């Protein structure tokens, strides 16, 4: 007996289990599809209900589940499986038919790289047929033949990532991009060299939608910019002749349809930048990310941009001399840019201050209500910086449109990493409260990640500020907490007696003038037994209960 053909497939245990699972899932999908076509063809007597997915072959033998699906449907299933799956080639090991379908599915072979061996690259280019390509090209001294082979298919490359050993090699890409590229939509150019060589001109077809330049100094032609929706500029910090590179203002004016703008470490693009004479309108911008730029430079950039109010802005400043994390918020024409911001994230590297401000809006019925939340994480802070934080929140309220004037809820959450003693007066509170004409609830939460106590006279200063307004009807105070790193639990420290008594005194002052506080929440305990917490003066607590109509005190997770 002679053996004419022998097909042997050796797979790992992991791939074998994947194949079995795929076959089981395929059987279920086949059953559902057969039922679908059966229901669809129920009214057509001239068509067999199993016509699309037959159970048996012409000779009457059962057809295995892996052979029942049409090639087109099987191809779509493999494409779905291959999306984000590094082991998608396991689908070609199921059987000969699946391998044939896999090799014939052009979209599975569209990701090419200059790092592929010559035979593998030829196989990808052949199997991808005429489908648009995603190419990663690294221009080195030993892969000229491979890169030239990819250049020949530039006419169908949709996404192109270029990597340079040095900035002088960009001239090769100028020749490359001079060829027709009718479907090119995304271009990324990385330069490993830190030495600028800006004597180059970059221009590509007008089909480009996304552009990323990393350490690439060059003139950008109008064909590059006019239809861009995403622009990322990184690592342009070396000083070069101003006229040798495109300035950021000129770049932004040439691409008014931007949706995403990222600028990181690009001081050279803002050289001699004058925000007063360089106004740029980006009406479609949704995300603005400014990273690793001095606060003063970021402020100038923000001042020149006219962007929608719904734009999310992330500002990561590197300015070791600044004491004001909100110094990037410039004033113009007597107002502030922050009235156009819903979400602002500021980070000062040197001083480890991380501030996030959120403005959430709700429209119950015909009335618009807003909740302003400020999350602050600090490693070290002084009174001046604390005032800046409060003034920034007040600026958001006072310089906003009339819609923001209805902000009824304010939440301030501060996490202290290391702090000894911080005494703030009632000035920041008065400034903040006066900025919210319709504020009805104020939540002030302070926590510590260090082993030491926090001595912050927040309750006293807040109480003094409450005497100046009759608009606040609800107050939520979470006093100083510290985290025990060994047990990862919260432990509440005793309230400062002077602060608590001052709070009671100020509430009595409000009551005598007809300004009764409707509700108050005091979260004094968290995840520890109450017998570990020294009690407050009973008379002070009793006075507090008589001064607030609805008093909520969280004792060991319960309300009393």
Automatic annotation (TrEMBL):
Residue stretches making up the F-box domain: 63-112
Region (Disordered): 38-59
Compositionally biased intervals (Basic and acidic residues): 40-49
Transmembrane segments: none
Name of the protein in question: F-box domain-containing protein
